[in-house]
Amino acid sequence: MLIRRNGFLSRNHQARAHKLLRLSLLGHTNTKQGTEENHDPTSQQIPTEGMFILQKMAASSLSFSLLLPKPPPPLLPFSLRRCHKHLRPSELFTATRNVGGARCSSSTASVATEPAIAAPQEAQKEDSTERIVLPTNDSSEKLLRIRHTCAHVMAMAVQKLYPEAKVTIGPWIDNGFYYDFDMEPLTDKDLKRVKKEMDRIISRNLPLVREEVTREEAKKRIMAVNEPYKMEILDSIPQDPITIYHIGEEWWDLCAGPHVETTGNINRKAIELESVAGAYWRGDEKRAMLQRIYGTAWENEEQLMAYLHFKEEAKRRDHRRIGQDLDLFSIQDEAGGGLVFWHPKGAIVRHIIEDTWKKIHINRGYDMLYTPHVAKADLWKISGHLDFYKENMFDQMDIEDEKYQLRPMNCPYHILVYKRKLHSYRDFPIRVAELGTVYRYELSGSLHGLFRVRGFTQDDAHIFCLEDQIKDEIRGVLDLTEEILLQFGFSRYEVNLSTRPEKAVGDDEIWEKATCALKDALDDKGWSYQVDEGGGAFYGPKIDLKIEDALGRKWQCSTIQVDFNLPQRFDITYVDADQERKRPIMIHRAVLGSLERFFGVLIEHYAGDFPLWLSPVQVRVLPVTDTQLEYCNNVARELKRNGIRAEVWHGERLPKLIRNAEKQKTPLMAVVGAKEVEMQTVTVRSRFSGELGTLEVDSFISRIKDACENRTSL
């Protein structure tokens, strides 16, 4: 088996995956039946994967290529990959079974890169599908036990092969497990050796035995095997007795469980060691650098194949690679890590996002703000950021004997705008919004493309309102959030309501009133949600919303937070009906989170194949020969005059020009030959619909405008 550190499939697994997919196309693979969850859609985090679904696809006929004729009904894996862009994101492998043959559906139940496309009538019939539904740690205790035991088996294998290695911790995680070792760096060859040793341990069917010992006994045993990290872990365990799990009589670890009964309960063909990474002990850069081995484990081989295919698809969609291929953005070493350069094409998409965001906010009664990127350090003392957030802030700078600070948040600025004058209760609600760039210190090792950066633009807004207005304002934010997210193709959410933690500011009555208002707003909206008891911020309850992308991954974007802290710190007030000074309620909210991170999510959601209205270049005009170049330039100018983003490419043979446009994922190509010049027309090819025939330029422009207005393809 070839296992690669970069996460690509081994040759064996590629062959096995292709075989499995071929069988799936023929309908010969046994699978579990499952249904798709409605709500399985971070700050700056890479998402947690939700429920992964592998759906078996019958043989399909595809026709989206502009260069190739329709292929015959294929059984080859490449046809499955080519169908991805026509399937709904979370249904990458839909099996569509119809009398008279199978097809690649674009029904309302399986929309992908163009969520708003109205499907053909015949495509809207209900499809019969079978799916492999990958379990999660929450849905399957068996899987959780397998993964936890795999971590122990891997640690045992490593110490058998490398006796000098010191063990630390080895938990289960979303897609598998990992274990951290203090040892020399490992190579791909070393991972192969570890996996083979794991297979031997599993095949021996060794029992896992739980033992309870006193703290002193645990210390003696740890000292006997010279495991200093385990001693530190033991000191952090508050309760007695101490539990130990043994694998046979050869290896043991401090552990609370749970585990499988014997190693034979693990399917060794459903395990893959994925990669090695460096990790600081306890996450502290001043502590030892450890070797972390990541692995994935499943209940059976079929689930592993589905996961590996999902992983390869996620790699294909990686926004860092696509951003470079499509020339959307970059992070320049000369400028510093975590600082994003928006290239012309990426900047166009950003402009569209910002313009859409601003129009919706203005229509919903928000006033736009622009505020400075820097302020006196005293402002951050008042807000409390210097006390509670200093490690995430850049160093202060001296300006004329005063300390200034790059802003990590926009909130204090919006409060200063509120405080510029005395407000009456009649003024409420007051809604202000800003696309404000903030700067936060992140360790270089934690930076990740657009997902974790040091400078980013938040879509920040604050609402100042009365207590009896909280519910209506929250409901308004929920409606606004849905409206914006639907614009960009996100319709599936996971919603969490977090309530008062043990330590909090504000009295019980206002917490109860605010929490009930959030619940009532969610109930009124009709959204299902989970309650995280005690998970709120110290300053107020909150609603967090995660969006589900094309692969079913969940991304924390939207948040709504009631704040009892900053109004008190800044002593903001209003005059009530009795001419008394009262303190208003303050609501923080963001919909997209940050433009950088949301753009990264968009890139991966669409795999760079943006819908027509959002694409940085909507039309590429292509002359058959350079003799048509003048007419092509005239067509492009007319398109631009009508607000359509167009460009002319020439200097190559037409097939290469078309291939290049395909690689750049341009939605529309207008091909111009001698006949088109004579008739004052263009021949149109669409990435989504194939050949559209010959159109007059005015008709072409009109159809593009209608498609963009209705968020559909052409």
TrEMBL record:
A single MF term (Gene Ontology): metal ion binding
Enzyme class, UniProt record, top EC level: ligase
GO CC terms: chloroplast stroma
Source organism superkingdom: Eukaryota
Alphabetized UniProt keyword annotations: Aminoacyl-tRNA synthetase, ATP-binding, Ligase, Metal-binding, Nucleotide-binding, Protein biosynthesis, Zinc
Annotated catalysed reactions: tRNA(Thr) + L-threonine + ATP = L-threonyl-tRNA(Thr) + AMP + diphosphate + H(+)
Residue span, Aminoacyl-transfer RNA synthetases class-II family profile domain: 318-611
HAMAP family: Thr_tRNA_synth (MF_00184)
Protein name in UniProt: threonine--tRNA ligase
Naturally occurring in which organism (per UniProt): Linum tenue
